[in-house]
Amino acid sequence: MKHSQARLAHEIRDRIANILRTQAGDPRLADVSINEVRVAPDASYARVYWSALRAPAAAAEAIEKAKPYLRRCLASELHTRRVPELDFRLDETAARAQRVEDVMRELELERARSANAAKDEEDPA
Question: pLDDT band at 2, cuts 50/70/90?
Fold first, then answer.
């Protein structure tokens, strides 16, 4: 990613997070976090990855409803020729990491059980 793309992505992330925190009136957006923004090379669109602590379905609905408002707010705050189209995507990185962690924990428990079973077979009481 070019320096200008990265700078614009960072700026958009900060601005959207600030707008959601201070200006959005919808309570469904109260616990939405903006995790990452990826801007297209021509800056025509920006993919915004977000997460929510509670009710991601309700938050997704609220974000879709607020998308035009967020873009207008960005237009007034960004100093660019044009504001990219916003494409909001639920960031499932944390959920995937939790699933991997759960699988690893299960494997560790399975190994411990099989090691204990092998030890019990070797040591007849």
Answer: low
Which of 9, 2, 5 shows the shortest CA–CA distance to 86? 9
In sequence order, the 6+-apart residues with CB closer than 8 A to the CB of 86 are: 16, 45, 46, 48, 67, 70, 71, 74
Provide the residue ranges of all domains of the chain, joining segments of one domain with +: 3-91, 93-125
Write down the pTM of the prediction.
Answer: 0.72
| Cα distance between residue 5 and residue 54, in whole Å | 31
Tens digit of each residue's pLDDT (9 = 90 or more) over 23-61? 878 888 888 999 999 999 998 999 999 998 888 899 999
Question: Which tokens is 29 given?
Answer: 């957006």
Query: In the chain, where do the E strands start and end?
Result: 32-39, 45-52, 85-90
Instruction: State the CATH architecture for 3-91.
Output: 2-Layer Sandwich (3.30)
